[in-house]
Amino acid sequence: MARLDIVLLVLDTQRADRLSCYGHPQEISPSLDALAARATLFTRAFSAAQWTMPSHASLFTGLYPHDHGLVQSRGVLPETLPTLAERLAAGGYATAAFCNNPLVGVVNNGLRRGFQSFLNYAGLLTSRPSQAGPRRGPIARYRQFFKRSLAALLGRIQDSFARSDVLLALSFTPLMVPLWQTALSFKGNTGRSLTDAARLLVERRGLAPDQPAFVFINLMGTHAPYHPRPEHLARFGPHIQHDPAARRYLRRFNTDIYGWLAPLAAPLGPGDKATLDAVYNAEVAGQDEQVGRFLDRLRAAGRLERTLLIVCADHGDHLGEKQLVGHSFGAYNEVARVPLIVYHPGGDLPSGALREAPVSLRRVFHTVLEAAGLASAEERRLSLAATSDPDGGVVLVEALPPSNVIDLVRRHHPDLLRRYGYDQPCQALISGDDKLIRFGERHRALYNHRHDLEEHTDLYAILPERADMLEETLEAFVRRREQPALAPERPPADDPLVRKRLRDLGYLE
């Protein structure tokens, strides 16, 4: 029997609560809703980290951030860790990426390893299929050589901006912001990347007969800055068209990149909050429309029924909640809880099913390998298709803020960092219905994840014994960091202390 194609579609910065299939009251995502009705939807899925690099590294290695080590913009994924694309390529898959996020496709951090084709749609020189077409004659070969050399040079320049504090600060100046938002195509090209990915999956050019394909797609449609199509803005934010103050706020927000990173000195006013929600929702609707066309193309060609399709987000985004904007800080649900939809025709993840147990997005790695027939026994046990929960209901989120962002914010608002502990590593432990958040040694919070998704009621002082048990369970993760790095991942529920605490909490018999 022919192996399925595998598509990993990452909706960068997509909040779970802004999709209709996750409870949003408006019809905002009909394409993804229709897919979810024929797939398995995980209602409580969590990213391993709150920003792009460590989150994608967990997707590509199956490890938590403290195990894979790619937690800062200067970092590089260790060569000793085989990536998902490397594993699949070694197993006979054609591996191709269609990426709109420069932190994944441009910065030299190891996330591109294993992809036989990696097309970028953001950056100084985007790489397109037309630039990698057939080489006919010496002139065509020279052009290809020139383009590849120029792309490599510009890639090194862009990489240096991610790694240098001085250059990063320069990129946030008023003169530079318009440049990288327009000329550098920061958000890429959602429509073009989806069209190119569909063409590969349908036409199969360059693939051997019966060779399966692994396709990774990253879309940036819901990432700031927000410039939704007029028809979507009219539907979700009609007030913006008639309110000069709303338009001024949106213009200021879109150009104040520092404002995407720093905590807010005061809560957003109701008008500004409504504007931010409206433009984000309009971007969600526009991206969903484009994803729908991609799915229609696969369906019409008969490829969708021969494809394992995993739709998720690398993280969410704050839109003023908790006095935060963006995703630099914290492990609150706005950034940590993500959509996860798995369409697996003929597989072990049934159509129309809901999975309500907490799961980590890192297990996408194991799920893909199992579907490809390349998983070890331990990896099969960690697949999302497993009938029992190998993690024992325990999920970890590690929200280590980027050090260069902390340095930028500290120069302007050191008091805000200290007050909330945002300059400290943040961790969240989800165990059953409970969620403990710890900001270094300064701040703790405890929430009931099932009944308080928006995390309004802090139970830390109300339920001290439960908080203490969860903190000891979290400490078990911290102690594991003292073990040799990059050791094979063991599920946290195998730790005797973790199992004891889960038993005390009533989650294990």
Quick tags:
single chain; 509 residues; alpha/beta; Alkaline Phosphatase, subunit A; eight-stranded mixed beta sheet; four-stranded antiparallel beta sheet; 15% strand; globular; disordered C terminus
Describe the structure in brief.
With 509 residues, this protein is of the alpha/beta class. It has 21 helices and 17 strands. The protein has helices at residues 30-37, 52-61, 65-68, 84-90, 102-105, 137-163, 165-171, 177-182, 190-203, 230-236, 238-242, 244-255, 257-261, 270-300, 333-336, 364-371, 377-381, 403-412, 414-420, 464-480, 496-505, and strands spanning 5-11, 40-42, 45-46, 94-99, 117-120, 213-219, 307-312, 318-319, 325-326, 337-338, 340-343, 353-355, 359-360, 394-399, 426-431, 434-439, 443-448.
What does this protein look like?
Strand 8 and strand 9 (325-326) form a beta hairpin. The strands form four sheets. An eight-stranded mixed sheet has the order 5-4-6-1-7-11-2-12, sandwiched between helices. The two termini are 41 Å apart. It has a single domain (5-390), classed as 3-Layer(aba) Sandwich (Alkaline Phosphatase, subunit A), CATH 3.40.720.10. It has helices spanning 30-37, 52-61, 65-68, 84-90, 102-105, 137-163, 165-171, 177-182, 190-203, 230-236, 238-242, 244-255, 257-261, 270-300, 333-336, 364-371, 377-381, 403-412, 414-420, 464-480, 496-505, and strands spanning 5-11, 40-42, 45-46, 94-99, 117-120, 213-219, 307-312, 318-319, 325-326, 337-338, 340-343, 353-355, 359-360, 394-399, 426-431, 434-439, 443-448. Helix 6 crosses helix 7 (165-171) and helix 9 (190-203) runs parallel beside helix 14 (270-300). It is built from 21 helices and 17 strands. Helix content is 41%, strand content 15%. With 509 residues, it is of the alpha/beta class. The model is unreliable at 128-136, 140-147, 482-495 and 497-509 (pLDDT under 50).
